[in-house]
């Protein structure tokens, strides 16, 4: 019994030590189980840890220590007062206050559970609210760039797979299985064939030893020798993004440690702008809503780069493009993805 109690105490101390909001006296009060003067949040954390069984405590500790890589759900009763919010406050985002600021990632398996809610903080993503969308690139126009990070000449961009209407389709969408196709690009070179997605959610990542999905480094091994800007950007992709079809909408979850930059008709209708948006790390956003797209005007002409079609989404990793930005066209971005959705019927 003493051995199990010591193990539980050790896990509790590890979790407290890993808190995002570390404060000397408060941290000691939490680890000792005292609430006096520690505030409601510290007391709430103590109460939450006490409710977890030993195996749940171990799963939560593993999730926090590994930043959520390949970890299971940690379930608590929905009758408690938003325990998932408290966990996200404690180990990821201290500024989060309400459950409507969070959205469950698609790999979490407890979404339909009517009794329990998952408290693994890495099974949640921060929601970019429609009323306060991510800022456009123009606010970052004064960012400093190293010479090697400058965009290549954009006067005449010739794409290896330059197709009318979309950079990825050349009659290929006529045989359209699944709900979307993915095309990976490095600058103006498409890397590998179109990839059909049939499962509800799909991961696109840099170079991860485990996990399923599209590994961009593996795709690039049989490609041309890229310039240093491409290699540097690819090394920063990490866990990358998750593309998810949820009900009638398509969501993008940025699981990378760096921002991604996104353009679609849905986002343009929310920002009242044709500029792409910056999606910060650990955030998510709805990138395709058929109800909004149905009211858009498609009569736009672009001199260079991909046409923003009703059923396409462009995602650039790490580097952005657009008005007021170093790279005017997405074909000047080091690593980017086109999500070509099945045409609406």
UniProtKB/TrEMBL annotation:
Main location group: cytoplasm
All copies of domain MH2, residue ranges: 179-345
Residue ranges of the region described as Disordered: 17-39
InterPro entries recorded: Dwarfin (IPR013790), MAD_homology1_Dwarfin-type (IPR003619), MAD_homology_MH1 (IPR013019), SMAD-like_dom_sf (IPR017855), SMAD_dom_Dwarfin-type (IPR001132), SMAD_FHA_dom_sf (IPR008984), SMAD_MH1_sf (IPR036578)
One Pfam family cited in the UniProt record for this chain: MH1
Domain (MH1): residue spans on this chain: 10-133
Matching CDD domains: MH1_SMAD_6_7
Signal peptide: none
Domain of life from the UniProt record: Eukaryota
Keywords associated with the record: Cytoplasm, Metal-binding, Nucleus, Transcription, Transcription regulation, Zinc
Subcellular location: Cytoplasm; Nucleus
PANTHER family reported in the protein's UniProt record: MOTHERS AGAINST DECAPENTAPLEGIC HOMOLOG, SMAD
Family that this chain belongs to: Belongs to the dwarfin/SMAD family.
Protein name per Swiss-Prot or TrEMBL: Mothers against decapentaplegic homolog
The organism's taxonomic lineage, starting at the top: Eukaryota, Metazoa, Ecdysozoa, Arthropoda, Hexapoda
